[in-house]
Write a structure and sequence with these properties.
With 308 residues, the protein is an alpha/beta fold. It has 13 helices and 14 strands. Helix 10 runs antiparallel to helix 12.
């Protein structure tokens, strides 16, 4: 039986399903903070989980590792309830100030997020005190060009967001727009490999301690994707469709077509993959059905409960 890593008492990980990122609650003498807030459809659940975990305390600060909607979708609800500050990557500040959902990528990915305002910004090299521990903010482009990770040198803990999971990392979205990403992800993995880390708290999945094995898998995965960019596009297409179905639970074929047409990232994936659009989509849906994510009905495409 695999044992969970022992974290400092001031840290608590609220591990979420795939649609919502993990929430890391930091409770210390200097205040409380939540790192990442999950997806908008789970905002009420996120608030309930955080209220329970705070045990009567208030929430002082939200820290977003990046602004994909599965990491910041609970921001608005938590701020409305607690009046807490929100800290975001500095390079995203102007987009959030304008609430430019195209620039933030919510429209391109076919995802939702309630508008929120921020009070603080985060820059690489900055030091944060969270849960009575000092964390260094590190740049982690690759999955997202402005993503950040947090490293506590004294406890040798890395909050890796989507830069490193136990079995991979997040989709390299910038590559789909021709903006690079593979080289950046390589550099981030090399950065992590150079840190003294004993526990990784990923954005999705349970905390883990076998860092060398995870890095080996991640480097191998990245090399596989770099060898043929169509592999990244195929993976991204599956991820985007699965995410949308997990959110909607059930879609008519007409609704599914609207989602496909409105998501520019989906369209980019299809262009990179080439070939006939309909057979490509059929193949993708069949693969997701085989893996247990969805099931095809006569009139609808539905989340398969066993894979939800």
């Amino acid at each position: 039986m695999k044992l969970s890593p022992v974290l400092p008492p001031t840290l608590r990980v609220l591990e979420r399903g795939w649609l919502s990122s993990n929430n890391i609650l930091c409770r210390g003498a200097s205040g409380t903070a939540l790192i990442d807030t999950g997806y908008i459809t789970h905002a009420a659940q996120t608030l309930a989980l955080v209220q329970h975990a705070l045990e009567g305390r208030t929430l002082d600060l939200i820290v977003n590792t990046h602004l994909h909607s599965d990491h910041c979708g609970g921001n608005a609800a938590l701020r409305q309830h607690y009046g807490c500050d929100i800290a975001i990557p500095q390079l995203e500040a102007e987009k959030v100030r304008r609430w430019d959902q195209d620039a933030l990528g919510f429209h391109a990915l076919g995802q939702l997020c309630d508008r929120f305002e921020f009070q603080r910004t985060l820059t690489p090299g900055q030091l944060l005190e969270l849960g009575d521990l000092i964390w260094q903010v590190l740049a982690a482009p690759g999955h997202d060009p402005h993503a950040l990770i947090l490293y506590c040198r004294t406890e040798r803990i890395l909050i890796s967001a989507d830069a490193l999971w136990e079995n991979g990392f997040g989709v390299i979205f910038p590559e789909l727009a021709g903006a690079g990403g593979f080289a950046e992800q390589q550099a981030v993995l090399e950065l992590i490999a150079g840190l003294e880390v004993e526990i990784v708290i990923p954005g999705h999945g349970a905390p883990f301690t076998e860092i060398d094995s995870a890095l080996t898998r991640a480097f191998s995965r990245l090399a596989y994707l770099r060898a043929d960019p169509r592999r990244n596009a195929s993976n991204a297409l599956k991820v985007l469709i699965a995410f949308k179905l997990l959110e909607a639970r059930s879609m008519t074929h007409a609704q599914f077509e609207v989602f496909l047409e409105r998501s520019s990232v989906v369209q980019a994936c299809l262009r990179i993959l080439g070939g006939e659009r309909v057979p490509l989509l059929r193949e993708t849906l069949a693969a997701l059905e085989r893996s247990g994510v969805l099931r095809m009905a006569d009139e609808r495409i539905e989340v398969h409960q066993a894979g939800a």
